[in-house]
Amino acid sequence: MALRRPDPDELLARVREEERESARGKLTIFFGYAPGVGKTYTMLEAARLEAEDQKRDVVVGIAETHGRYDTASLLIGLELLPRRKVEHRGITLEEFDLDAAIARKPQLLLVDELAHTNAPGSRHLKRWQDVQELLDTGIDVFSTMNVQHLESLNDVVAQITGVVVRETVPDAVFDTAYEVRVVDLPVDELLERLHEGKVYVPHQAARAIDNFFKEGNLIALRELALRRTAERVEAKMRGYKIAHGIEESWHAGERILVCISPSPHSARLVRAARRMATSLHAELVGVYVETPASLRMSSTDRERLAQHMRLVESLGGEPVTLRGEDAASETVNYARKRNVTKIVVGKPTHSRWRDIVRPSFLDDVVRLSREIDVYVISGQEPDGGSTPPRKLPALEQRTPPIELAGAAAAFVVVAASTAINWYFFGHDQLPDVVMVFLLGVLVVSMRFGYMPSLLAAVLSVIAFDFFFVPPYFSFAVTDLRHIVTFVVMFVVALVISHLTKRVRDQADSARNSERRTASLYALSRELGVAHGRQRLIEVAERHIRDVFGGARIAVLTPGAHGMLEPAFVEPGTFDPADKDLGVAEWAWLHQRPAGVGTDTLPSARALFLPLKGARGRVGVLAIYPSPATRLDDPDERQLIDTFAGLVGSAIERTELVEEARKARLRVETEQLRNSLLSSVSHDLRTPLAVVQGATSSLLDEHGPKDPKVRRELLQTAHEESLRLNRLVRNLLDMTRLEAGALRVQKEPQPVEEVVGAALGRMEDRFHGREVHANIPLDMPLVPFDSALIEQVLINLLENATKYTPAGSPIDVSARAKGDEAEIEVADRGPGVDVHDRERVFEKFYRAREGEGGGVGLGLTICRGIVSAHGGRIWVEDRPGGGAVFRFTLPLEKVAPSRLELPEHEESHAQ
Question: pTM for the full model?
Fold first, then answer.
């Protein structure tokens, strides 16, 4: 086993990663393919071994026994963490207590059902998020999950079972787990347990057998679980090899790599490799290496290569395009990275002399492969099974004029070199003559390519012999030393041509790579900052049109009923009446490309590509090619596929953002509803109870007869009814305010009038307080709605009476500041904490309980009314103690406007 010296940077990164992992807890997942295979039972058995044999501190955070006696008996002797009780819609739910687990901080914690969704109001939406926080605190965790809960397999499971699983776990959580233990059980035994009632109660078991627990479903799920676990093990093996500098392939599993080229015999090679892979139950990878020389491939060869790559994909293989200088070394290096066990190549078809000049691809692969087996398959006779390349347009077939131009240039350049040599050097300075001819060869090679430069080299040797070597104007050579000069001159010219060609190819390859990289970077950058699906599609349309020669697109996404609907259509592209919709639906259902340039419905007008995200399909991209679009070019197809992947991921991101927004809205709505019910039920019940008690005493024939007492009861009932009226009024005002059902009617009027009206209505609430009003005599008229601003002042004054000590003064003042009027209500109470100064304007929020209660809507209504007037409201500390509520009103005249809460206000749920 050969070892290479690890890269220092990789070694440092690995050390740092190990340091981070050492401080983090370890997650062990007990992985099964269906409920009832024994995941929880196995987890509890393992936990008991950890506690008894390893003497570890083990605590059961939550374990779902589902009423199974055998499972519940394993809990005996283990410490159980009390569950957290959550009230939700009148039902008491028991949930895992994350805070208690962190406070207890055992060495090992058992948290069953990793994919579980927590009750509303919990810190995290999902239980796997609770587990991540536990791991961050250094606690090891045992947990359980089934294969259907893996996010990447959600669509596959739904297709197999017909059941869409809503509770999923990201693959990253599964892949980064310290250990995954497969809990396996034969399907027959699981069905037997189901019939015996060991999985579900009898009536549930009968329903499960008819739906999810069909034998075929269970067999498929079992295979999925085993394969997914094997993939994880293989990934760990590759990581180990990279970490320890191991380059050789380990034959832990068969994987076959077939080398693809534009040769017409490659189709036979691919089919032979597929048969070999099938017999060995191995994966198939088809690899084509794009070298700088391949950039000058003819259109016919490009079309044939594209067919071979599609053939690999159609046979269930993975087509891969690599780029590099040396095709053999790139192929073998990739084979080692993918842990390939067998490489399949074709027999050489060129003549033997070529191997003497340059080693063949086969020889290089055999020499470099070492531990990898190399299979050489005959490709001498085509099997006729490959699809002949399409007939190319006349424009693509007209290559001879370019070759003729190169040949003509070679003649012209050699003639010019001869004239320059004849005029400047003559017959006496032959070394200079040779250098001028070589310079001419270099010029032809740089401008016209390899073959014209070879022609120029031959013509230069002929011209040198004819014009400058005696006997002159004859091809005869009298001095044999000139033969060596001819040979050296030709060889040098040949080397110059080859090197120039190589430099040109490398430059072209670099330009193409730069173009691909720049286009992908530009697209990903704009998609990353774009908001909304429509904007994303517009960005994709612009980049695809620019990169692919004016191609036009259409994007289809699933509608409300799951059927494809046009989300973006350029004029003259998608036509539902045509067969475009049928091709798009085929690509959507089968998750494979279809249409022009493919083997599926190739007569369609466009190329239809499925758009995929991390969670599955999100739509279909239709590309309508222009005459300049080359869908047959493998590089262009790979770039198009990459574009489609970026667009699919971006569309999925917008869907996730929208889902997160809706989820947040549902949580806020639920919290709002709970707050409303809690506040309203308490604050309405209290005055109603007082009114009911007072009136029942008055109506009782044995009640008090003293007129003074009866008056006090009536006064109490009246005050509580007023309080009840204020509560209901605030609720109605808030509802009308958010619905935009009120109108602001602004009229210029004196501030002192509205202040006086508000003080008059609040007079009975002051109870001996000193109230000072300070309105300047030169205060200008202010445009406002008197009824609404009076309501603002009443709410602020009422707020001051609730939250300040009895008898403390209240000051109301107003002043003009620039183009605004500023009105303030100041008190001498405890003030408002800094972190509460914005929250006090939120709906149902109260910094502290005040006298007389309330539902916490008064200040919210104030902000809504002031904002509708074009002003602002805030609270700050008052010098000497207390709080000052200030709001502004613009002095300019404003037309009547609709009273609505600004969007940012609504987002605060005020």
Answer: 0.46
